[in-house]
Amino acid sequence: MKIFSAMAVLLVIWMVPGGRAAAAPDPNPEILKARAVVLTDPALAGRASGTPEAEAAADTLAAWMESLGLEPAFDGSWFQEVPLSGQGWAGEELGGKTGRNVAGILRGSGRLADRFVVVGAHYDHLGRVTPADGPAPPPARGDYYPGANDNASGVSVVFELIRLAEANRDDSGDRRGVLFVNFVGEEVGLQGSGYMVSHLPVAIDSVDAMINFDTVGQLTENRLHVSGVGTTASFPVMVDAANTGGLDLSLAQGGWSGSDHMSFNTREIPVLFIFGGAYPEYNRPADDWSTLDFEAMAMVTAYSGRLLHIIRNEPGNLPWIMVAQKNLRQGDGEGQNRDTWFGSLPDFTEEIVGYKLAGVFDGSPAAQAGLQKGDVLVMLGGEAVEDLATFTMALRSHAPGDLVEVRVERGERTLNFTVVLGNRADRK
After folding, report:
1. Same domain, 297 and 346
2. What residues does 224 pair with on adjacent strands?
3. N or C terminus: which one in the chain shows less Cβ crowding within 10 Å?
């Protein structure tokens, strides 16, 4: 197997001494930390899709999967080549480049052995502050986006789930297999998951559920957001039954918030999106491993391990339920949630298409997600925003606690944010 550098090999050996024999029965914060440190190292330069550093990250992830005893997902290979398109974070052209999804399989057993749960997290991030035209030395601190919370945290949790699943493996009884995936191209439009769901290494009608981890490196007062709970009838009971560790679960029915689970939801596969909440370092060079709470990540891992175990062992079917993307095109104020809080001030000084922010309130959902004064909001929850009126309609179609994807224009860049909507009663 090709590994990008000797450093990558040494770090793999150090973190997983003796391979599967080193596994422990409980989530280990130190192992979670070690993986996040590797993924945010300057040698990987922010893991931008289509770069040599993203390829190096993929090599490292494959080595980790092999060391933990998974089976390569793609006819003996860990990699799925993904054609990229569009532009990267800084406007660099991606057309003609490729990225790699990385995936391995943990086989099931008994009557459910040919059924699968997909467990995934994207490993790509934004790359260098100024993209390199060719081979370049590792960037200095502040010259790249480490992407610790978004999404080295999710990748680290997925690998800890692999480690625990292999350590506690039991081939007796009826149990679904697991397809563990690290997606490329999430930051540039869900390209890796979109490609995979159309080119799965297992039959698509054998996939009963998908769990996606994105931005799980920090929790506020032990609150964990779980959306997609309404996409199959059994999820509410399962999600609650797994919570024996004292987490404060914030639940949302739909599975449309902007991350890789959306690609599976659109193909009528039940999804759960595990999300830790907005944080101040989002899409900034300051998002490095030192900002992560590894004890909190261990709690997320423990919860998710119990949830995965329940789903794998569920004897019945998990039929998909359509939870409509909310909109306010019903008229007469039907379905409006006037308590929903975003936390911004409109700027009426310019006549533009979109909703320009004259400011955001400290501690508001908008501020926590990383929105700033001067941003022009052009989409909220899948609804186009053309002015204050359409923003208000889109906002009121959602309830407090919902996760919504927000698209803004900031100067020459178009940015996407996940916002956890608040309640006006909670304003300070």
Report:
1. no
2. 249
3. C
